[in-house]
Every structure is written in C-alpha cells, then in structure tokens.
Amino acid sequence: MKYTDPLALHWSDQLKQSARKIIRWPVRYLILAIMLGLLIGSKFSLLLGIFLMSLAIVNFLVLLMFRLEFSLREISLKEVHNLGFEDLNSAKLPVFSVIVPLKHEGEVIFNTLQSIAEMNYPSDKMEVLIIVEENDAYTLSYLEKIDLPVEFKIFRIPNLKPYTKGRALLHGLEIAKGEIITVYDAESRPSSNQFITVLHAMEKHGKNFCYQSIIRISNKNTNILTNFFAAEYYDWYDKYLNYISKSSLPFGLGGNSFFVYRDVLKKCGAWDPYNVTEDAELSVRLVHNQIGMKLISSITEESCPESIKEWLQQRIRWNKGLLITQLTHLVGLRVQKGGFGMRGWYRFWLRMMAGTLLPYSTIFIFFFFLVDNPLKWYIDPNHLSIALFIFLVSSIMTSILADRSVFNKLKINYSPGSILTGTIMYMILYILAGFLSYFEYFISPLKWNKTEHRVNQPDMLRSKYITQ
C-alpha cells in the first residue's frame, strides 16, 4: 500500500498515533486471525462460548440503554436568534477560516456557498477555503459558474493518496490564516448567526473547547429512510449531545459545523489523513489533549441519503472509521486525565465500542445457532431461542416507542405499519453496514464511499452568485 502525498505523510508522522499503522496488511491479518480464532474457538471451549454470548447480549443491552436514556426526555436545544455583536465583550472580532472540502459535487454547492456568504459576520473577518482535487473537473465546472465573493478562494490540491476528507482538510489548514477553524460540507447550510453564537460560547467557556453546532436533516419527509435518519440525528444532537455538553463530558464530533482555535487544533495533531472517519478520530485526540466539547444553540441543515445503497455506503464508511479509530487509540480505554473520569469513559468510549462490536455480536449469535456449540450441552436451546426472541421483540417495541416520540416532535407523518417496517429495516441495515465495514477494513481500509448529495428540497434557492 503506497502513499505519495507528502503533506499526509508529514502529518501522520507528527501524530503520536496514526491509523497509517493499523491499516497495513500485517496488522489487519493479525486482527482478522484474532476475530476468527475467537469465533471458531467458541465451538470447542465452553468458557469462551459463555463469554462471547454474554458479551453479545450485554452489547445489545448497552446500545438499547443509550437509546432509551434520552428518547422520551424533552431536552431539545433550541436555536437562539437574538444574539448580536453588541453583546460581545471582545473589542476585536477574530477571523474565521472556513474549510469546504469538495469532491465530485455539483449543483448542491450553490446554496452551501450562498449560506456561507450570507453569514451575519464581516466579510473581511472570514476566509473561505474551497479545497478541490486538481483533476476533479466535475466540481470545478460547477465552481466556474459562480462569481465568488473576494473572501472565497479555490485551492486545487494534488491528486495523490490517501484520497480522504482528512487529507483535504489538512491542505486547508496549512493555508488557513484565521484564528478559528470550522468545516462545512458540500450540503451544509449553516444559520446566519452561527459565528456570533460561537463567539458568545467562547467568551463564556474559553479557548480550550471545541464547539459543535446542531445538525438537522432538511429532507426528512422524502421517504421512510430519511424519516428515521432525521429522527436519529435529532436524538443524537438535540437530546444526547445536549445532555452530555451540559454535563461537561466529551462526545463525538460531527463532520462539519464545529469550531476550534487553530493553534489548539494543530497542538492536538489536527486530522489523521489515514482514517475515513476523521471527525471521530479528531474527537479522541481532543479528549486525550484535555480539550472539552460544548454543543452550541445554532443549527446547520444538511440532506441525508435517500436510498438504501447510498445509506449503506455512508454507514459502512462511518463504521469502518470508528473501528479503525478504536484500534488506533486502544490506549484511550484508560480513564482520561482530563477530569472526565469514569463517566467520561462510559459516555465516550463505551458508546463507540458498543456500536463497533454490534456486527461481531450478531455474527456470534448466528454462529451459535448454526454450529453445534458446546453451550448447547448445558443450556436448553429451545429456552435460549425463546429468550432471545423475547429480547428481540422487546428491542423492536422499545425502538418503536422512541421513534414515535421523535416523529411527533419533528412532525413526520407515519402509520403503525410504516414505523414497524421502518424500525425493523433500520435495525437490519445497521447490522448489515457493520458486517460490510469489517469486510472493507480487511480489504480496502481507505476506500472512500462518497455520499451523494441531491438538490431536491422545494425551498432550495439558486445562488445569487451564479453567473451562468
């Protein structure tokens, strides 16, 4: 596996822990051998079989517990619209550097760039760095149609490995001059007062924090898949992260609309170019460097995948990146020195681990019923089958109740049949994406499953900066 981008190599060498080692073949072979060894060994060892079955059940319970904990609470964080410059104590407003990495994007970028241009912030106090690979003729053809404001700059980066968002962001960081760094994706549409909200939060909490905006799904009513995606994001940002932030505990960042001082970001190592989920990986290193995280009351809208194929491609990349992140930062399983303690470990690492282990847990349960496992010599398989069936039905019913509550909150139309079908479908897709992410880690760890972004919202306006 050969990598040729000197900037990516430089940054990976600077990092104390980079996924560059974890994605090499000898390591992947070893991890595959351990996973297969545990699976096959459970056929011949009673103690190992009991351990893996217990782990599988506990893993499901942990994920269910996290879902239940906030699903029925009304703790939604609302956006604040009345913040202004006059409320700020700073005599001098800082410069924001906005990095916008684009790869094979079309018309969807018009509204994103317009949203950024219309931010309620002085144009001379922001720079927008649009990062595009030099051979990406498709994206460049759309950028040529836009008469960009003076603070917007297009930077063509070399078409070299690794082809990841993290590498593109590093190129942007190298040329960024602003004191505060943020990232917007091709389909991000931030609220106009977002920068002001960030500055108010920074004045209150200080420099040693990373500030995350709320992400909302704009195409939530397209189909049943987008219904559940929107509900999932609402549970995550408005409820879970809201609670975690107020508890001063660490959490996983989103891939865009987070704000951090440039020198803090560089001190922590910035992004690892050899990880396909650069936001999760950055979250871990921020925690290791004792940088706190806060959710701010500002919203960024974005669209989500509308087909099963596109959903799977995105989730496979996310799951693969989480797996690589945890394999890279296994030392992070220790209790953090940054004052987060056991609650931080529980909230931050346990949730990540449970999601990553879900496919392996499912594999073992299937393996248990398909193979003559020694556990069957001691446990009545009929009783175990009934218990697992009851557990599965209970999980589905619990998820339905949680989804129903969020659907009502988001004003998503549903019927009893659609929510039942959708819940089962979403659970199956989650497990399938996990299986495929394991496969991709062993076969092609740096494969970037790009998310397709469509312009299909009826209220989407074409950018006033378009000249053709």
Q: Keywords for this structure?
A:
single chain; 468 residues; alpha/beta; 11% strand; 53% helix; 8-stranded mixed beta sheet
Please explain how this structure is put together.
53% of the residues lie in helices and 11% in strands. With 468 residues, it is α/β, with parallel strands linked by helices. The longest helix has 30 residues. The two termini are 43 Å apart. About 3% of the residues have low confidence.
Radius of gyration: 23 Å
Our count of helices gives: 15
Return the structural class.
Answer: alpha/beta
Arrangement of strands in the largest sheet: 3-2-1-4-7-6-8-5
Our estimate of the beta-strand percent is 5-15%
Portion in helices: 40-55%
Query: Unreliable runs, pLDDT <50, ≥5 residues?
Result: 333-339, 457-463
- Average pLDDT taken over every residue: 84
